[in-house]
Each structure stands twice: as structure tokens, then as C-alpha cells.
Fold this protein.
Amino acid sequence: MRVAVVAAEWNGHITSLLAEGAMEVFKEQGFAPGQVDRFDVPGAVELTFAASQLIEASLYDAVIVFGCVVRGGTPHFDYVCQSVTQGITALNADCDTPVIFGVLTVDTEQDALDRCGGPFGHKGREAAEAAIKMAAFTRRVKDL
């Protein structure tokens, strides 16, 4: 099994924690270094393009995207959240490779930190677990 992990550089102090949590799970599950590739993109909006390109490469059994969008005083939050959510949803509906949505859409930076190993769990670890399960699901369906 091969997995691609894509992290947005925007709010990198959060997205790096998410990606690190995912990598811990893969290591715990016995994945070799060559089975998981890490990629970075500028921001959350670019995650859909990156996932699309990685799917088209046909090298991966799952793609995880990590981003963090913190609500601000302008409608930009809504546009970014809508764009990335619709983009990843479309990929999941149209493609054979599962894309795991690891994008935090939060009101405050603390809300994001709370989801990186704090009181609300570790969304990076959860995304890795979902990727493993969805890749297994896809293999099972193809074997029917």
C-alpha cells in the first residue's frame, strides 16, 4: 500500500502537526518509508489540485490532505472552506482513489491545536487510520 500525504503550508505549525500524527500511525502500522510520500502546497485551496494530480499518477492507494483554515473577519474563510470541501468531495465521487479530508475549519487557532493531540483527539492520526481503512475497502470492492 502507498499513501500520499499533502499538507498546506498556510498555518504550517498546525498542518505539520497533523502530518506528523499521520506519519506516526503509518510507522506504528509497519509502513516502510517508501510507502508514504509527503508533499506540500501553499494553501488549502491548492489541496484539491494536488490530490487530483496524485490520483492521476496512479501511484497511491489513498491520498490524505491536511489544511487549516481559521475564521477571520472577512468572508474569505467561507470561500476557502467551500472550495476545498467541494473539490475533495468531487474527487471522492469521481475517482477510484480515496481522498481523506484532513482539513480543520475552526474559529480559533486554539480550536485547531485542540485537534492536534489535545482534548478533541488527533485528526492527523485519525486521517491516517481512515486512509488505511479506505484503501482496504477499495481493494475489497475491486476483488468482488
